[in-house]
Amino acid sequence: MNPKPGNTRENVPLDAGTIFRHSRHMAILKIARMGHPVLHQVAAKVTEPTSADTASVVRNMLETLEDVGGLGLAAPQVHISKRIVVFFLPAARTGEGPNDSSEKLTVMINPEIEPLGAEKELDWEACLSVPDLMGSVPRYTKIKYRWTNLDGTQSDRVAGGFHARAVQHECDHLDGILYPMRMEDFKLFGYSKETHMNYDLMRSGSAGPKDATDEEAAA
Ligand code: NI
Question: In terms of C-beta density within 10 A (0-12 exposed, 13-18 middle, 19 or more buried), how is residue 21 classed?
Answer without folding.
Answer: exposed
